[in-house]
Amino acid sequence: MTNPPTPTVPIPGVHEGLRSELQKAGIFVVSTEFLYNWGRKNSIWPLGFGIACCAIEMICTAASRFDLARFGAEVFRPSPRQADLMIVAGTVTKKMAPQVVRLYNQMPEPKYVIAMGACAISGGPFKQGYNVLKGVDRYIPVDVHIPGCPPRPEALLHALITLQRKIETQRTLGSAERRNNPAYSDDSRDFPVPQYGEHDLVPAYNRDVWKARPVTRES
Amino acid sequence: MIDIAPILARFPSLAHDPAANALIVPAHLALEVARYLRDNPAYLLDYASNVTGVDYLATEKKSKVKQADGVYKEIVTKTEAGMEVVYHLYSMHLGHGPLVLKQRTSREKPVVTSLTPVYRGAEFQEREVFDLFGIHFDGHPDLRRILMWDEFKDYPMRKDYIAPDDFQYEPTPHGDVLAEAQKYYGLPEEKK
Fold first, then answer.
1. ipTM of this complex
2. For the residues A63-76, what does the mean pLDDT come to?
3. Which one of A122, A199, A219 has the shortest CB-CB distance to B188?
4. Which of A171, A202, B155, B161 could form a Cys-Cys staple with A197, CB 3.0–4.6 A?
């Protein structure tokens, strides 16, 4: 599924016919941004970080049968300082949530999050409980959600490819929604780490990241 | 099944719970009874497999019972509120068990005697009961919360616990969840 570096996006000022002729001779005329994103999307380094049973599927995805290395994302890093992608693989309990946010803060920009499985996207079967976060997107911005309990390795591969599609359309300065997000203001790029409160985490969610969606019901 | 009649004869102040075939131990006797059960060659209950808590609210149940003369009479059965700590004891030596040991206490000031001095393995499980039910264990070496964070004030497994109000929309609510959803979003509108 990885694309060869065939430039399809027209570059202003470059004649498309000439570009096509040059390509036949093995000379590719592309923008730096294209090359930059092409390199970025094919070498996503995930954080080696599993918090529940979905992590087993994630490990399986990285192993020989499904072979995450085909997509360039096999280098699981043991340190958040070296990682581009956080795969939240499993139930995030309220006791674990501050540590997840702290790990995310420690990752360098640009960084991405895949919420893997029913628990990470919504709380899953523990949603009615008192001790599980009802979706990790209450505290950190999630790029790709994967439903499933647990999702198949193919689903994780699909999420990774979806993320690659997202990366290749981004400007090198980052996407507009990211730059204009108040959570990414220049003062501090750290996301507030929730505190342990007397009854619940304080705050219960990050207002800049998550909003309770209005309901549109279909019967 | 362990015959508990000799134990009841040895300790006359123990009560018997026939529904669970359990011994109900008063707090001041708990350590002595546990030592006896562990060390007596007839029982050798050396393994506390399970420690858990139970919370009972006061209940009132009405039922109609047929009398001898054929007339139905309404009977009200009341149970008192209280809390219990249940121990399941097994013997690795003799391969028998479980013997169920219970300590009863009040809901207002729940205190029981810790059996950690006798069964070292009960330490974490008693901490869990303390964490989730708020039952204090006298004589426990390190009684702290084990699952929830230290700042947490509630006891989530108690019947009167109120969970934090962080309801989020569900596509197919039913039962209690539907009632909560209606509180937030009103009745679902029919699609035209």
1. 0.78
2. 92
3. A219
4. A202
